[in-house]
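Contributing new records

If you add data, match the layout below exactly. Sequence lines come first and carry their own label; structure lines follow with theirs. Keep one chain per record. Anything else will be rejected by the validation script.
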Amino acid sequence: MLDIKFIRDNIDLVKRSIQKKHLNFDLERLLNTDTRRLMTLKLVEEARAKQNVASGKIATASPDERKRLVVQMTLLKKELKEREVELAEIMKPWRTLMLEVPNVPDVSVPDGLTEKDNVTQAIVGEKPKFDFTPLDHIALLTALGWVEFERGVKAHGFRGYFLKGEGADLSWAIWNYTRDFFAKKQFVPVITPAILKKEFFYATGHLPRESEDLYKTQDEEYLSGTAEVAMMAYHAGEVLEASELPKRYLAFSPCYRREAGSYGRDVKGLIRVHEFYKFEQLVIGPADHEESVKLHEEINRNYEELIESFDLSYRRVLICGGDLSPSKVKQYDTEIWFPSTQTYREGSSASYYHDFQTRRFNIRYKDGETEKPVFAHSLNCTAAATPRLLAAVVENYQRSDGTINVPKALGPYLGGRMVLGSNEDPRST
C-alpha cells in the first residue's frame, strides 16, 4: 500500500506506474474519494471537539446552564454519530481503492505487456549433452518407482502424487542441503504455518488478485502458496530496532496452489502440482532504496549460487511492467534448463516491495537518528521449491540406463551415494 500523502504528492508518477503495469485503475476516483474522506474527517473532529468542550462545562455549570448543556450535548452526540457513520461509509470504497493502487516500478523495469516481453539478462552454465534421447522426469521417476501418480490421483485428485523410495530421499537431500547452504549466509531457519488469516493475504498483495488460486477453509482462512505470507505476519504490528536490520529468514513450509490459471498446462508430472514444499528467503530491511536494490541482488544471487552448486544451467529474466505484480517494485525470475523439452522453466522468483507490504502489516523500526518509527522494506525470493527442483535434477542427471547421477553437492546428504536407481532402462518400458 502506498501512503496517500505520497500519492497526492506524486500523482504523475503514480499515473505512469499504472500505465507501465498496464492496469485499469481509476486514480481520479481515489483522489475524489480521499477528498471526501478528508472533508468528512474534519467535520468529525470538529463535532468531537465541540462535544468535549460542552462536556467540560457541565461539571461547573449552574443547574439551569447544565440543563441547556445537556440538551446541547444530546444534539452534538447525534451530529457526531451521523458524521461518523458518513465517514465509515466513505472509508469502505477508500480502503478498497487504496489496496488496488499499484506500487511504483523501478526505472530499470522494462516496458512490456506480457511475459513474452520479459528480458533475458543472462544464461549461465552448460546444458548437459547426451548420446541418447533424454526422457522427461515423468518417465524417469515412474520407471524407477520413485513416484506414484495414479495412487496420488486416487488419494488427492487431479495433480496428486506420491514420492517414495529414493525419490523421497532425493527430496530430503535437497531440503537438508538448502538448509545448510543458507545457514552459511546467516539466514535464520523457520518452519512456518501454512493456514493463515485472510487479512495477511491482502497485506502481501496475494488477495484479491489471486483469489481463484488459493485454497480456503470453512473458517474463512486460507492455505498459503508461499511462506512469505507467514513470515510477513510474523512481525505484524511490531516496532523493530534499526540495529536488527536487515533480518534474513529461511522459511520452510508446505505450499498449496489451485493452479486455477494454468488449465491445460503441465497437467502431468511435477512441474505444476497443488501441494509442494518450498524454502523461501524473506528479508526485512531498512527504508532505503539503494539498500533494497543490494538486498534484492543478494537474494537472487543466493538462488543462482544454489543452482550453480548443482551444475544446472539457468537463465535470469527481468520481468517487464505488464507482467509485474501490482505490489512489486522489481522482479527477477530464474529459470532452470529441462532437457526433455529443451526449455528453461521457472525455478525461482525474487522481488522487492519497498514499504508497500510493511505499511499493510504495520512493520516499523526506530530510526537511529530521530527514533521516529518508520516503515521497513520487504523482499523475498525462492530458496528451493520441490518437487520442481527435484524434477530438474533428475532430467539433467539422467543416464542412458535410466539411473540418476547425484550432483556432487548432494552426495553427503544421500549417504555418499552418487548414483540412484536400478539398472532397468525406462526407455524399454
